[in-house]
Design brief:
It comes from Amblyomma americanum. The protein has 461 residues and is mostly helical. The longest helix is centred in the C-terminal third of the chain and has 33 residues.
Length: 461
């Protein structure tokens, strides 16, 4: 939440630069430490602050720059960083064998300084609320501000609306110069925004997070992180307790990791293509996870356990990713850092109960099966809550579509917009990614290189 609060007033570039320095300099300074105390402060506190920044701000930047293909962009970010997680331990081990301990730390810190290069290319995104700059025209009325909650298909709907009407109707309209407003870089904040008190801006953002949808998504993400991390810690022991050999027990974790990796790519495509809504996706993944955890608790066959582990990683990993996308859709750009930071904070607080719970199941109960049953029950409860949420959303959409009395059928006289696909989608898709490719590569570089520092943990043991 600290970086979320700072994100309300400090630019993303400054936060990324601070996080990069906090990741690189403490690792290099550890090479000069002569006792354990400085290492705990440098690596445990300062480096931890840097990693927290690099795990929050890149997702904020990607969420702001990508609207229509936000899920796909975040999925690619997850995949690249996951692949770097496989490479980072190999680099650390190679440096440990080739150099001395202090020299290896200096080299790793120097490698992490490469994050500064990626931070330079992070651009600002034009504001979508009423605080954005207005176009300068020759006595023309300013273009109306975009809504705070930007829809994912806003650009396509605008294009389809223009193409659907006749040329005479379009020619008869006086359209203000929208390009002047969009292309103008918002380097200077408007005076009214500068005069807004700090406490009022903070209260407005905190009030937006007191809503039921945000609390529902945050609780679902916390439960997903808790279940997945607890399962990864207990899967090997659970397999050994049920008669699996060493390789077979480890393969349970591998199956879960493969499912998690697959979900990073598939979830973004599902959400962007609108195959399932966010509520429906959460409903089905919680239901599948409840069935998978119950199967592991009562069925001890190897292939059933392997398939259940894959489904657990697929659903839990997909929900963690989907919650990030849903949070980005619930809030405007200014409150996005704080909302993502609070969701991470809630998940961290919930995970504090993981060690005593696992210890109780292992030492007192003597089996992990009751723990998995409790996970299945929790998933079933959230299946019910997301079912209610989906029904409520469908009901509200149906009420909005009902025409008012006396106006029914009045809109039939107007030409209806046609949603045109085919040749128009590919240029817009390529344009959307090409225009933001520099920013995406920058945040991916910063996030993936920060994993080198996390891989330094074996050097201190």
């Amino acid at each position: 939440p600290v970086y979320g609060l700072m994100g309300l007033w400090v630019s993303d570039r400054i936060l990324l630069l601070a996080g990069a320095l906090l990741c690189a300099l403490p690792v290099m300074a550890c090479s000069l430490a002569q006792s354990l105390g400085p290492i705990v402060f440098l690596y445990g506190v300062l480096f931890g602050l840097g990693v927290a920044c690099e795990e929050l701000v890149p997702f904020t930047v990607v969420s702001r720059h990508f609207v229509r293909y936000r899920g796909t962009a975040m999925g690619l970010l997850f995949v690249v960083t996951a692949l770097s997680g496989f490479v980072s331990p190999l680099i650390v081990e190679a440096l440990r064998q080739a150099f001395q301990f202090r020299t290896a730390l200096l080299i790793l810190g120097a490698l992490e300084l490469n994050m500064l290069f990626g931070c330079v290319f992070v651009d600002r995104v034009p504001r979508s609320d009423d605080s954005g700059p207005r176009a300068e025209g020759d006595g023309e009325a300013p273009w109306p501000p975009l809504p705070v909650g930007r829809t994912r298909a806003s650009s396509f709907q605008t294009a389809s609306l223009v193409n659907s009407y006749s040329k005479d109707l379009v020619a008869s309209l006086t359209i203000p110069r929208l390009s002047a407003r969009i292309r103008q870089p918002p380097e200077a904040e408007p005076l009214l925004d500068k005069r807004e008190p700090t406490w009022r801006k903070l209260v407005a953002n905190l009030r937006s997070m007191a809503s039921a949808p945000f609390l529902h998504v945050a609780a679902s993400r916390a439960v997903s992180v808790f279940v997945l991390s607890s399962f990864l810690l207990t899967a090997v022991d659970f397999g050994s307790d049920n008669g699996l050999a060493g390789y077979e027990a480890v393969s349970l974790v591998t199956a879960s990791a493969v499912g998690d990796l697959v979900s990073r790519v598939g979830t973004g495509l599902i959400l962007d293509s609108k195959v399932l809504s966010g509520d429906a996706f959460m409903l089905w993944t919680f239901a599948i996870q409840a069935a998978a955890m119950a199967s592991m608790a009562f069925v001890k066959r190897y292939w059933v356990l392997l398939a259940s582990c894959f489904c657990t990683g697929l659903t839990a990993g997909g929900r963690i990713f989907a919650c990030t996308v849903m949070i980005a859709e619930l809030f405007d750009e200014r409150s996005l850092p704080l909302s993502l930071g609070v969701t991470n904070f809630i998940a961290g607080i919930v995970c504090l109960a993981r060690p005593p719970l696992i210890g109780y199941a292992r030492d007192i109960v003597g089996s992990y099966s009751p723990l998995y049953v409790s996970f299945a029950i929790t998933s079933a409860v959230f299946t019910v809550t997301w079912t209610l949420s989906l029904c409520w959303r469908k009901y509200r959409q149906r009420m909005r579509r009902q025409p008012a009395n006396g106006i029914a059928g009045a809109g039939s006289c107007l030409p209806q917009p046609r949603v045109q696909y085919g040749g128009d989608l590919r240029p817009l898709f390529e344009k959307g990614f090409k225009s933001e490719a520099k920013t995406f590569q920058a945040v991916t570089c910063s996030f993936s290189v920060s994993l080198l520092g996390i891989s330094c943990v074996p050097l201190f043991t």
